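User: Show me a protein chain along with its predicted structure.
Assistant: Here is one chain, sequence first, then structure tokens.
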Amino acid sequence: MSKTRMTNQRRIILEELRKVDTHPTVDELYAIVKARMPHISLGTVYRNLDLLAEIGEVLKIDSAGNMRRFDGRVEPHRHVRCHVCGRVADVFTDGKDEPGIGSLRVPGFKITTVRVEYDGICEECERKSAAAADAMQEANQRRAC
């Protein structure tokens, strides 16, 4: 692939993405970048993020049934997604449970990427869920009296 020029827009998008650990959607990152570059368009952010992912400067996180998100950290790691709010967080392991690409054998395939996704519930959603359950239990107790 030919050398891709690091334009001012591309540089700012990359800088802003690397400042956050929230794994933003394009719309979320657009709002952040727009504060710095008021005249940038959403389409420009989309195109540049796709290009940055293509050249390996950022990670594109595609989860089944969810909006794609982007990560400024490109070193190997996994992600966990809250099945309630969709928030994504980094998961780092010691590598002991991770099969290397070279150790995987599937007849008729050359495996080029290993992707494992974790689903869970973030602390905030868990707190909200517990508070809602407590409120419901209190309401049921009041009705029973």
